[in-house]
Amino acid sequence: MPSTSPERRAAFRNAIEHFLKERLDAKLDKLPSDDPKRDELISQHTRETWLADAARRVAQIQIVTHTLKPIHPDARGTNLFRAPNELPAHREVGSHVLSQDFSSDVVGNAAALDVFKLLKLPVDERPLLVWMQDGDPDLLAALSNDTDQAGDWLIAFTGITAPRSATPSSHTLAKQLYWLTGEDPADNTHYHLLAPLYSSTLAHAVFQTINEDRFGEAGKLARQARYAQRDHDTGYREYPDLAVQKFGGTKPQNISQLNSERGGNNYLLASRPPKWRTRALKAPLFTDSVFPRFGRIAEVRNTVRILRDFLESDPPSTMETRNRRDALLDRLIDELVDFAHPLQATLPAGWTRDTECRLVEAERLWLDPGRVETDDATDTEFGGAWRRMDWPAEIGRRFGNWLNHELGQSLPLADIEGRHWRDELLLHTAWAGKLHSLRTRGDAPTYIPVRESVQ
């Protein structure tokens, strides 16, 4: 245990008070200077008052690795904490392969997640919770001048790692599987009931790895080398047919803390066999738009048909209806990103200079980003237009018009629906991620007017 010192006590206390000040300032900034609630907020965020309240609320949350709510948001039952080194090793990929610096998750009352943020505060490169678990005397003194009070808070905070019940339980909305452990399938006693849980720590590690591969600096440099047909020290990873599963809707924090940090996004790798393509990719020449070509893709035609049939059924205006519509729209947007990628990455940079290319300017800018990097002194107008970043909003508008046309044969669709399809494209994770990658590679400004066009 480290020796006690006034400097260490001050370091702990400063970390806590700085955390509280940031939270307080964020709330005060939203209030007028004469609002009577300001005094109440200031009083609530004094160290002893806030810590006393946090010690009471910490019982509402639990640190876990395997969670139940991703299975079903209304399921009630046991969540588990199992460190990777506590799990049996298998040849298959699982939570057991994670290192000891894995990310723990937190479940429970989302209103109490601020307590976990406090416990994660680093001091000397270790979270406050670890210092608490060690019973550090300087941290104890930093919590409160009252030794007994500080001891009670310490017990309350370290209880966040304890199971909420000694008896595991499942729920009717949770997944349950009867596994034959005996010899007689007709004998109920020869089965063991399994209740699979979602490994939130593994999902978070997968999400971080894929995001780094897709948007990280190393991958960006390797892709730049490929576009410029230069040798490079490393390769890069692509994830074809990557799917995004959303948990929690507009309130991902209701599922768990890590799910909230991911914005509710959870990646699913494609599990189907690869599709071999033997025909060379052809540039979309002799046409003013690629959207008709996009619309002829079998998966796109099928998704549009399902969406049209669903909307024509006049479904009720409920959350379930919106989720169903948005899921189909997400599928179309993923297909659009996948459709554009080979045109952007496989065709030679500057292919839109071909005199037989009749695409509108926005689609040229979208589908030929390598042209910006060719350093052609006679092509500065194209590079300037690309970096102004007006074209993503125009692509969104054209996508909205195309989808309105595809759906509007028997549906009363107008500009408002077209704007909705446009906005969903511009704010979609796959589209925004790809645009971020292109913008970074093309040295476009960080601030672009794409968001301003979303009304």
**Total number of helical segments?**
18
Distance between the termini: 57 Å
Helicity level: 40-55%
Question: In percent terms, what proportion of residues is strand?
Answer: 5-15%
Output the structural class: mainly alpha
Q: Sketch the major β-sheet.
A: 2 strands, antiparallel
| Strands, total number | 10
Instruction: Note poorly predicted spans.
Output: 448-455
Which helices and strands, and how do they pair?
Elements: H1 6-28, H2 37-44, H3 47-57, E1 61-64, E2 66-67, E3 105-108, H4 113-119, E4 122-123, E5 126-127, H5 128-133, H6 137-143, H7 147-158, E6 177-180, E7 191-194, E8 198-199, H8 200-215, H9 217-227, E9 243-246, H10 257-261, E10 265-268, H11 291-295, H12 298-312, H13 319-345, H14 361-367, H15 380-388, H16 391-407, H17 415-426, H18 429-441
Antiparallel strand pairs: 1-3, 2-8, 4-5, 6-7, 9-10
Give a quick rundown of the structure.
The chain is built from 18 helices and ten strands. The protein has 455 residues and is mainly alpha-helical.
Characterise this structure.
The chain is mostly helical. Among the domains are: 6-65 and 104-161, no CATH class; 278-455, no CATH class. Helix content is 46%, strand content 7%.
Keywords for this entry:
455 residues; mainly alpha; two-stranded antiparallel ribbon; two-stranded antiparallel sheet; 7% strand
